[in-house]
């Protein structure tokens, strides 16, 4: 995990796209290589969030559930998971918003995402200010919508507990 969190996502994308074919018979398309890199990168950060959320709970939670006769998977599903989710929802939201914005880096391997399409339009139309302002607005719209949904989920989780 430290290797992933300690290296730039840009380099990770390049290693998967160009490096994977040189060390294996796999030759991922730009989209697949990008999705693999984004997934691995996000998993490293999400894993730390989940670990922190679990460690924040007292050991008494597990012990009390065991005394009541719950099995290990029941303890996790019915007692630990709901509390962890409530605790880590803000960091999950942050990671997914970051993921939306980091998707723009995929243009380096030719994935036709929003920033690449904008750049292609700028190359044809020669209107960079307008196009990049629209692009920024679209990213802002996507991340704001996601943040709004996440805030709604946070309020619901607080109300449910």
Explained architecture:
- This protein is mainly α.
- It has a single domain (2-160), classed as MetI-like (MetI-like fold, Orthogonal Bundle), CATH 1.10.3720.10.
- The protein is built from 7 helices and no strands.
- Helix 2 (9-23) crosses helix 3 (30-55), helix 3 (30-55) packs across helix 5 (72-102) and helix 6 packs antiparallel against helix 7.
- The chain is flat.
- The mean pLDDT is 92.
Number of E-state strands: 0
Name of the top-level CATH class: Mainly Alpha
Cα-atom Rg, whole angstroms?
21 Å
Instruction: Look at the helices and sheets and give the structural class.
Output: mainly alpha
Series of H and E elements? HHHHHHH
The name of the CATH superfamily reads: MetI-like
Distance between the termini: 32 Å
Chain-averaged pLDDT: 92
> Could you estimate the helical fraction of the residues in percent?
over 70%
CATH architecture: Orthogonal Bundle
Q: How many DSSP helices?
A: 7
* Beta strand %: under 5%
What sort of overall outline do the alpha carbons produce when their principal axes are compared? flat
Q: Could you say how many structural domains there are in total?
A: 1
Q: Please mark out the parts with pLDDT under 50 across 5 or more consecutive residues, or reply none.
A: none
Q: Assign the CATH topology.
A: MetI-like fold
Largest sheet: none
Family: Belongs to the binding-protein-dependent transport system permease family. HisMQ subfamily.
Membrane topology: Multi-pass membrane protein
Subcellular location: Cell inner membrane; Cell membrane
Main location: membrane
